[in-house]
Amino acid sequence: MEFKLEAHRIVSISLGKIYNSRVQRGGIKLHKNLLVSLVLRSARQVYLSDPCPGLYLAGPAGIPVQQQQQSGDLAAVPPAGWGEPPPLSARAAWPETEPQPQTERPAVSDPVVPVSGTGDALQAGEAEAAWGRVERPRVALAGGGEGLDVFPEGPRAARRPCGCPPAAAAAGEEHRPPLPPAGCPRKRGAARVGGGGHAGCPAPGSTPLKKPRRNSSEEQPQPDGVEETGEEEMETGNVANLISIFGSSFSGLLRKSPGGGREEKEAEENNPEATEPGQICCDKPVLRDMNPWNTAIVAF
Amino acid sequence: MGEDTDTRKINHSFLRDHSYVTEADIISTVEFNHTGELLATGDKGGRVVIFQREPESKNAPHIQGEYDVYSTFQSHEPEFDYLKSLEIEEKINKIKWLPQQNAAHSLLSTNDKTIKLWKITERDKRPEGYNLKDEEGKLKDLSTVTSLQVPVLKPMDLMVEVSPRRIFANGHTYHINSISVNSDCETYMSADDLRINLWHLAITDRSFNIVDIKPANMEDLTEVITASEFHPHHCNLFVYSSSKGSLRLCDMRAAALCDKHSKLFEEPEDPSNRSFFSEIISSVSDVKFSHSGRYMLTRDYLTVKVWDLNMEARPIETYQVHDYLRSKLCSLYESDCIFDKFECSWNGSDSVIMTGAYNNFFRMFDRNTKRDVTLEASRESSKPRAVLKPRRVCVGGKRRRDDISVDSLDFTKKILHTAWHPAENIIAIAATNNLYIFQDKVNSDMH
């Protein structure tokens, strides 16, 4: 449990850093953000792998945690990040090239700009989605099949810790944690984050902070645990999108993002009242519903 | 080391005794020139201050070799990249001196995006006795000119003139972290997070990319370049360090694009030390070739390591700089201190290495005797010609009187930039906005 809390704390701090780096003078520093994302990933792994029944939330969908946990289709559940994964229409969001079982990566945060796990060129919107994917815990599929269309909020917390030994996960060992019996959420076949490998359980995340995202039309990119492509890519897992953002330009998503970013920024400028610190306005309904924590990430 | 040392602290003229420090005054780089006569510092405000060592005077032998301000100029200004909507900081990231080839001195200074070649010249004579102009430069009334005179050069107060001779711009997409002048004195390289470019000192509109680690898909990015340096003698060799803690030695004769290294220096990670922050603390913040060219010195967050060019598997020496911080990595992460990039230096004979730490401490390690010392650069503890007292950080257990406990270390006082005179035991320590220059008294007595 302590590990989980510690990991969660580190995750929050890391997200804060990334968010703040947006407004830093001189532009986003690639090196620092790369390191922060590595920490983020490690913390997430630990968080997901810590077999602590921990914090459970009852989702709005009313699906009891247990159910979620036992959902056999957790394989389809995207590896959880932390916090509450926004509801996803994973399937739709996910690039079609991805094999079914791998649709654990559900959604893209922004339906307009699908986040592709596989390395589609990331644009700002994708970046946002990527962030969402990285950060957002994914909701375990209640009982759904491979393609997750909707992720009920509740179960997030319910995500069962998978059987992955936390230490191993934390140590980043290259191993494939055995598929958890009923609980382990999405384990993506090839997806291993940070070489550590475990799909990890969807993280209940920052319970108090997170308001589950109920927008079912929304897709959230999966937290990164699951990498789209191979072992190698796992290394950069959730960072990937982040890096893409940086890679494309240091002005970040806001500029490049077709739609998402720019609108976001404009919305931000135009609707200051709707913006709280950490919360980004976006004219996309999806984003609006996000809880502040997630939104911050997405915005970034 | 750590025996008798003279101390002399030099303040920039614009410093005051307040605890509040103007950010622009924070020193961001320190570099001696090849003879040690000049010392250049760059700061966050884009200024460069050059100090010159006063020639030793027989009349006042105790003041021999002090450094005084020689020249101050604004090297870089803040810029705005309109295309990317990014402000480009004017902070001077690195200064490197060119070998002196005539009466003028030249140095390269760089911020995140642009490298500039500055020429520093002295003027100590001026012509007097013009026929058409009077002393103030006004045209004379020709009717008053009755004879011709030959203008003569008369001595004047020394004036140091600095002019930008070359501006190497638009070579880098990412932030430049290091520059290094080649031993051929014709080329130099500049490295950013993902690429290294080779420039000719006389050509500003073109540069060659010699290393490119940018992946085709940025999502695959796992490491960035953190520092790079040319070999001091072999103009074809250079090394660059990565955020993963590895060093790559490249030979420019092998290929035009040196993505493929000739040698990879990497130490396997100790699994027992693994933590959330293992990757961060293994990132190399500085790499320096020894003067001999046989060894390399690297600095990561907690250690300095000496590598032999002939052995890639592991460093030949590892020194703990402040291992007591290992248990505090989380709070250092929170405060961003874990991202501090400390530099390291060799002394002239490659027998002692030096690096900075927190609380205005800096550390020296004698490679031969294996002794090390911690010294402090502060106004309180150093009066001119006072002897620096070794400090100690206690980590629990018995605490001696003057020890500092780990918890009372001031992490806002960090010594990131240090430089060692190329031949003598004179060191320059940058502590936030103050520059300290320490001399080894023993050494100076020998003159």
Automatic annotation (TrEMBL), chain A:
Gene Ontology process terms (BP): cellular response to heat; positive regulation of cellular response to heat; positive regulation of transcription by RNA polymerase II; regulation of cell population proliferation
GO molecular function: identical protein binding
InterPro entries found in the cross-reference section: IER
Acidic residues composition bias: residue spans: 225-235
GO cellular component: cytoplasm; nucleolus; nucleoplasm; protein phosphatase type 2A complex
Segments for region (Disordered): 67-119, 157-238, 250-283
Start-end of Low complexity biased regions: 95-104, 160-171
Pfam families the UniProt entry points to: IER
Protein family according to the UniProt entry: Belongs to the IER family.
Name under which the protein is recorded: Immediate early response 5
Species per Swiss-Prot/TrEMBL record: Jaculus jaculus (Lesser Egyptian jerboa)
Automatic annotation (TrEMBL), chain B:
GO molecular function: protein phosphatase regulator activity
SUPFAM superfamilies listed in its UniProt record: WD40 repeat-like
Alphabetically ordered keywords of this record: Repeat, WD repeat
Recorded coiled-coil stretches: none
Signal peptide: none
SMART domains: WD40
UniProt-listed Gene3D superfamilies: YVTN repeat-like/Quinoprotein amine dehydrogenase
Tree of life domain: Eukaryota
Membrane spanning residue stretches: none
A GO-annotated cellular component: protein phosphatase type 2A complex
Record family assignment: Belongs to the phosphatase 2A regulatory subunit B family.
UniProt-recorded name of the protein: Serine/threonine-protein phosphatase 2A 55 kDa regulatory subunit B
